[in-house]
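Table S2 (text version). Query chain:
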Amino acid sequence: MIVEIPYVEINNYKLPLLKTKMECPKFNKEYLVYALPDTSSRFSILDRDIFMQCFDENYSKRIDIIFLANLSRFSERYKIRFNFIEIKWQNYQ
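Corresponding structure-token output:
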């Protein structure tokens, strides 16, 4: 199976962006974001402002705290549900 992911070019970077619905418990609905399914990317799926719009301080989805060796700092990981609505699957023989 092959997955087609649309790319967008921004400042000479080609980014694979997927239209994605993210859970938003604060408003009991989903929030539309453009996800970046690239774990080695220098860009992020969402910024802190979007996160805080959907999750208040009392709603904890934190999994753990990790150490980012290449940045020499600690960060938090969160478990958030995403629905990738723009993936096109093709059978390839």
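Notes on Table S2: Residues 48-54 form the longest helix (7 residues). The helical segments are 48-54.
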